[in-house]
Amino acid sequence: MQQARALDDCAQATPLARAGEFAPLRIGALRVNPPVVLAPMAGVTNAPFRTLCRSFGAGLYLSEMVTARALVEGNRRTEQLLHFAPEESPRSLQLYGTDPHYTGEAVARLVGEGRVDHIDLNFGCPVRKVTRRGGGAAIPVKRGLLRNIVRAAVRNAKTAPVTIKIRTGIDEAHLTYLDAGRIAEQEGCAAVTLHARSAAQLYDGFADWNAIAALKQHITSIPVLGNGDIRVARDALRMMRATQCDGVVVGRGCLGRPWLFRDLAAVFAGREPPAQPKLGEIGEIMFAHASGLAAHLGVAPALRAFRKHAGWYTRGFPGSAQMRRRLVQVCTLEELRAVLDGFDAEAPFPRAAMHIARGKKSGRQRVALPEGYLEAPDDDTPPPAAAEAPVSGG
Question: C-alpha distances in angstroms, 13 versus 9, 166, 210?
C-alpha cells in the first residue's frame, strides 16, 4: 500500500504534456497519435478487447500473437486468432517465428492476402519450454539467426511496416537488446519496442527505463518504443521524458482498465484525465466486454474467458473477493447482468488499485537454454519446431 501511495504521488507530480512536446509516432506509413500502442497479450488482446480499448482513445492496437509455422501449415486455431473486427484500422498483428523460411512465408501470406497493415515480431517470450529449445527471448543471443528472421519478414512484407519487440536480454549478465536493436535498424524494421526487463526477470520488480534510454541513443533512424510499468497515464509522460523514446507500449496496466487509453489521450493533449469510473460505470464496461466476447466466441466460451477479466475489473474494490466469486459462476449474459446490477453503482474506484500489478505474476527465474547455447552466438541454425509452441510473452 505504501508503494502504491508513493507511485500515485509521483504520477500526480508529473506535468501534463505541453503543446507540441510529443510528436505523433511514425511506423512506416502509419501515423499514431497519441504515440500509444496496446501490447499483444495471449488470451487477452482479441478483437473484442481491442475494439473496447479503441473506443476509449486513438492509438495502435496489436492482436494476440500468432505463430508463423502454425499459420503456414493451416492450423485452425491459428486462423481463428487472425480475426479482426470490420472497423479495425490499421490491423496490427504480432507474429512469432523461429525459422526464417516459415516467418517469411507467413508474412507473405498475411500481407499478400490483405489481412494486415503492420506486423510486429516477438523476440521476448520468456516461457521456459520455449527458451530451453532456443526460441523466444533466447533468439537475440544468436545474432545471425535474428538477422535472418527479420530480413525474411521485411523482404516479404512489401510496404507493410515490420517492427520487433525484445527484452533486455537473458539476464543482467547476458544483455542482447543493443545488438538486437541495431540489427532491426539495419534490416529495415520500422520501429523497435523494448520491454525493459530481462527474460530472467519475467514481470518482477521495476522495468529498467535506463535501458530504453540507452537503446534510443544507440539507434537513431527508427523509433524506439518503451514498455514496462505504465500503470497510469502520467507514467507514459514520465517514460518519454526520461528516456526520449518515441512512443509507449501499454500491457498489464490496461487489464481491467481499458479506459486507461482515454486517460492517455487526455494527458498527451495537455488535459487532466477524467475521474476514474465508479463501479456502476465499470459494470457497464464489463457487460459490453463480455457481450463482445460472446459474439466472437459464443456465450459459454466467452464467459469462461471473461473470468480473468472479472478479477481485473474488480480488483481493489472493497468486497472484491465476493464479487469475483459471483462473477465466475455466471453461465449466461442475463445472469451476468443481474450480478452486475447488484453491485453498489456509486462505489468509487480505489486509487491504490491503479498501481496494483495485474496479469502475470511476479518472480524471477533461471532461464532455461539448450546446452552450450551462450557459447555459440554466431550459429544461425533455427531451433527445432517445438520452440515455436503457441505461447506468448515479452
Answer: 6, 30, 20
